[in-house]
Design brief:
mainly alpha, 3 helices
Length: about 90
């Protein structure tokens, strides 16, 4: 090897793309899910937030972001379905 050649080592920072995706899907799904009648189109984002959050928690890096995305996804699903269940129960009782 040539003595004038220098070897450069670049270390890649560890990341967790699924944790980031879970949090982004959860936040977007929650914010847009609050819009009446339009919110149900965000159902795939809620499901993806839950799936990505669950899988992303298996990596120790950014596990908090994955957990936050999972929690936001679950809260949004429970909120939407709970609202409509209560709404329909109110209609049935009226």
């Amino acid at each position: 090897m040539d003595p004038n050649v220098q070897r450069i080592v670049i270390e890649k920072q560890d990341s967790n793309g699924l944790a980031t995706a879970a949090l982004v899907c959860g936040i977007i799904g929650l914010v847009l899910g609050l819009i009446p009648f339009f919110g149900w189109f965000m159902l795939p984002l809620w499901v993806l937030a839950i799936i990505f959050g669950y899988i992303g928690m298996k990596k120790p890096i950014k596990a908090g972001m994955a957990k936050a995305g999972l929690i936001i996804g679950v809260i949004t699903v429970v909120y939407k379905f709970g609202f409509w269940i209560l709404f329909l129960m109110g209609l049935a009782g009226a």
